[in-house]
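As the work plan foresaw, our protein records have gained a structure token line. A representative record is set out beneath this paragraph:
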Amino acid sequence: MKAVGDRIDPATMAIGSLVTSPLLDIDLNRSIRDACDVMTRNQVRHLAVRDQSKIVGVISLRDLVKMVAARDTPEFLHRSSADRQGRGS
């Protein structure tokens, strides 16, 4: 944390001194690749997601990794071990 690294008491530090400004956001109709590009280019792990001018959520690097991992996991890894054992016997 920035507060800890700067040896500032987080109990008295204002949130406003920690926020990234300007707020980085992405339109909810943009692609996952676009979100990854914005995160990489700006070296951030979270992006606000906007619908027109309203912030409707936050997407994280972890969200993107989980989505890609689920998409790219081979089918045999999706099956339960019991299912695999039953077919192999």
